[in-house]
Design brief:
By secondary structure, the protein is of the alpha+beta class. It has one domain (4-121): Sufe protein. Chain: A, CATH 3.90.1010.10. It has 5 helices and 3 strands; from the N terminus they run αβββαααα. The protein has helices at 4-11, 59-72, 77-80, 85-91, 100-121; strands at residues 24-30, 35-44, 47-56. It has a 3-stranded antiparallel β-sheet. Helix 1 crosses helix 2 (59-72), helix 2 crosses helix 5 (100-121) and helix 4 crosses helix 5. The longest helix is centred in the C-terminal third of the chain and has 22 residues, at 100-121. The radius of gyration is 13 Å and the shape is globular. The N and C termini lie far apart (45 Å).
């Protein structure tokens, strides 16, 4: 069902955990499947210098969280907002059709964390 890259990332996810005093935190969930994803961001000079996640869900949700946090590290906030679920799927070299919603959660969690960051800046 999953390709080798997804399996490898699920087995050895990067950036698991929380960031204390995070600049932005985004939590999203999909009630139909039970996946819950929380992304924490540390931002300096409008650049994401660290990103961590806590995800309750399937292999695809965990792999999507891990790859998404890897993708946005070092990005400017505005560039990270341009990350779409298709970009996550491409980085994972594909997901089964019934698991695409996990990549959507990653996109939504990034957006939610950045919105949280921006709301704290005002």
């Amino acid at each position: 069902m999953y390709n080798q890259k997804v399996i490898d990332i699920f087995a050895n996810p990067k950036n698991v955990g929380e960031i204390e005093n995070a600049d932005g935190v985004g939590t999203v969930g999909n009630p139909s499947c039970g996946d819950i994803m929380k992304i924490y961001l540390k931002i300096e000079n409008d650049v994401i210098v660290d990103a961590k996640f806590k995800t309750f869900g399937c292999a695809a949700a965990i792999a999507s969280s891990s790859i998404a946090t890897e993708m946005i590290k070092g990005m400017k906030v505005e560039d990270a907002l341009k990350i779409k679920n298709a970009d996550v799927v491409k980085e994972l070299e594909g997901l089964p059709p019934q698991k695409i919603h996990c990549s959507v959660l990653a996109e939504e969690a990034i957006t939610a964390a950045i919105q949280d960051y921006k709301s704290k800046q005002k």
